Amino acid sequence: MIALLWSNVVLGGLATGGISLTAPSSPGNWVGWIYGVIVGVVLTIVMIVLIIVIGRWGSKA
């Protein structure tokens, strides 16, 4: 449930920034797909780093 909520938050933020991740309207137009892959990879790396940092921060107590 939380993942679905954050999915909508991220997609809404990207739409507000003018980045459309919908399927390209014409064959051969891969821009939307490329943006989706790049955003997915960057968000995944950022979340993994945050999990590691928060995990280490929590274990210092």
Layout of helices and strands, plus pairs?
Elements: H1 2-16, H2 31-59
Oligomer: single chain
Rg estimate, integer Å: 15 Å
Beta-strand proportion: under 5%
Number of helices: 2
What is the global morphology?
elongated
Mean pLDDT: 78
Uncertain regions spanning at least 5 consecutive residues? none
The largest β sheet comes out as: none
Ends: how far apart? 30 Å
* Total of domains: 1
Helical fraction: over 70%
How many individual β-strands? Answer: 0
- The sequence of SSEs as H and E is HH
Structural class: mainly alpha
Describe the structure.
With 61 residues, this protein is mainly α. It has one domain (2-59). Helices cover 72% and strands 0% of the residues. The chain has two helices and no strands. The chain has helices at residues 2-16, 31-59. The radius of gyration is 15 Å and the shape is elongated. The model has no long low-confidence stretch (mean pLDDT 78).
Brief synopsis:
Helices cover 72% and strands 0% of the residues. It has 61 residues and is an all-alpha fold. It has one domain.
List keywords for this structure.
single chain; 61 residues; mainly alpha; 2 helices; 72% helix; elongated
